[in-house]
Every structure is written in structure tokens, then in C-alpha cells.
Design brief:
binds adenosine-5'-diphosphate, alpha/beta, binds magnesium ion, Rossmann fold, single chain, eight-stranded mixed β-sheet
Length: 256
């Protein structure tokens, strides 16, 4: 029962948007998916077309209190970042056992890097959402320096809100691709449909089924399906030169 963590380097990178759509893609691939949000100011329900006022039930609330959207069980645990018993609780709930058909996507806010560091070693994949922007690039060396080899091993990157009409965005994206190599899971284009769908209180798939960002984010989700086969351990091959790794070739790291 694998856990997938989504965590951005900076707030506003689009981590919650990506987390919601990874959950939808894994659910469409047949997985039984729970989404766990761990922040007070939570916008996760909006990506499922739910009302802004919707408050999600606790991870520990009984099944009859569940909020289901697109077949996905949406849960919240705002105390998780401070709770040293969070990982044991996940284990007790059966989320850290082997198996392929029960999946938890945990949306970790960018500021909670200590929490991410605790959970990622137990996750099948850590999806780090970044923008192709100079401020993000400036943070990358520090972030890569701080991460443990285990955390790096299970981390893959998604460039979100990429605007290829802008030279700086294009060049930043090329630089990220060079830096992270095969660990780049893919890129999602900047697309007005994403905030428009939220404004219309509709899921993106309903509001703009042929939108560019939806097509991109579906590919990201599909690329994570192999991570479900390797619960509880890193699915991206270890090594200082990931581009040279034969294991990681199974993950589509298409050009951004
Ligand atoms: N690919 C995209 N194109 C356009 N807008 C996007 C895209 N991804 C996210 N957004 C918008 O960016 C804002 C921040 O997204 P969010 O997922 O809440 O970021 P985070 O969780 O990293 O803070 C939201 O308004 C969202 O609609
Ligand atoms: Mg968020």
C-alpha cells in the first residue's frame, strides 16, 4: 500500500494541483486512492470541484464520514507535521504494507520540509514540484545539499506552470532538466484553464477536458503507476548519475 508524497520547493508551485491530479490518474489506473492534506489553509477540495467551504474529515474518521470525489477518499490531518507518531499511524492503518491496490497521496506544504524528510523514506515516490523560475533555481543547490541520499533516491521532479513562450522560462526548464536528468518526471504547461476551473467550481477534467495542463498532468500521473509496484522503497534508481541509470529508464522522463 504505497505512499506518494508531493512536496514543492516553494509555496504556489502548484503542488496541490499536481497532487490532486496524480491521485485522479492513479485512481483511473485502478488504484484505491486516499488523498491526505496536511495543511490548515487547504485548497485540495477545489481541484475536485467541491465547495470552498468543504472541510475534509480526519484521516482517523470513520468510513461513514468520508468525502469521496471521483472515487477518491479525501482526508485531512493538519497535526501530521508535528506528530511523531504519524508514520507509525500510517503503518497501523496498513498504508506502509506491500501491495498495489491501496494508495495514499500526501500533499505536504512547501514549508513543512522537516515533515517531508520524515515521511519520504517510507514513501514509494516523492514528487517535488518546481517552477522553471530563477528563484526556484536559486534554491535547488541548497535543497539538494540538505536531502539525504535515501530521500534523493525516491525523489522525482515535475516542472509546473511552464511557459515555453518565455525565454527565461524555457532556459530555466532546460537547466533543471540538465540538473536532475532522468529524475524529471515531466512538465506541465502554464494554462489559464487551471484557475478558471477553480473559479467555476469544477474539476479541470470537466471544465476543460482538452486543456494542455490536463494532458500534461495525466502523463505525470501515468508515469507514477510503476511506483505503486515498489511500495515502501525508492522506485527511482539510486546513484549520483541518475541519467546513466538503466532502472530509471522505465520512468518517462520526457523532454520538458
Ligand atoms: N499549470 C498551471 N497553470 C496555471 N495555473 C496553475 C497551474 N498549476 C497551478 N496553478 C495555479 O497556481 C496556484 C497555486 O497552485 P497550488 O497547487 O495551490 O500551489 P501549492 O500547493 O504549491 O502552493 C493556484 O491558483 C493554481 O490554480
Ligand atoms: Mg498546496
Amino acid at each position: 500500500m504505497p505512499v506518494i508524497v508531493t512536496h514543492g520547493l516553494k509555496g504556489g508551485a502548484g503542488t496541490t494541483f499536481i497532487a490532486a491530479h496524480i491521485a485522479m490518474a492513479l485512481s483511473e489506473a485502478g488504484a484505491d486512492v486516499t488523498v491526505l492534506t496536511t495543511t490548515q489553509r487547504d485548497t485540495m477540495p477545489l481541484h475536485f470541484g467541491l465547495q470552498p467551504a468543504m472541510s475534509l474529515p480526519s484521516l482517523f474518521a470513520p468510513a461513514e464520514d468520508a468525502v469521496l470525489a471521483a472515487g477518491i477518499d479525501l482526508r485531512s490531518l493538519t497535526t501530521a507535521p508535528e506528530d511523531n507518531d504519524f508514520v507509525p499511524a500510517l503503518r497501523d492503518l496498513g498504508f506502509l504494507e506491500t501491495g498495489q491496490d491501496k494508495v495514499m497521496v500526501i500533499d505536504v506544504p512547501a514549508s513543512e520540509f522537516a515533515f517531508a524528510r520524515r515521511v519520504v523514506p517510507h514513501a514509494s515516490a516523492n514528487v517535488c514540484v518546481i517552477n522553471a523560475a530563477p528563484d526556484t533555481l536559486a534554491l535547488m543547490p541548497q535543497v539538494l545539499d540538505e536531502a539525504s541520499p535515501e530521500n534523493i533516491a525516491s525523489t522525482s521532479f515535475v516542472i509546473n506552470a511552464l511557459d515555453e513562450t518565455r525565454r527565461l522560462s524555457r532556459h530555466s526548464s532546460a537547466f533543471i532538466r540538465e540538473l536532475v536528468g532522468a529524475r524529471l518526471l515531466g512538465r506541465v504547461r502554464l494554462d489559464e484553464s487551471v484557475p478558471e476551473a477553480i473559479a467555476m467550481l469544477q474539476p479541470l477534467g470537466k471544465y476543460a477536458p482538452s486543456s494542455a495542463a490536463l494532458a500534461d498532468v495525466k502523463m505525470i500521473g501515468a508515469a507514477l503507476v510503476p511506483a505503486l509496484e515498489t511500495p515502501g522503497r525508492p522506485w527511482v534508481a539510486r546513484g549520483s548519475n541518475p541519467a546513466a541509470s538503466s532502472h530509471s529508464s522505465s520512468s518517462p522522463s520526457r523532454a520538458a
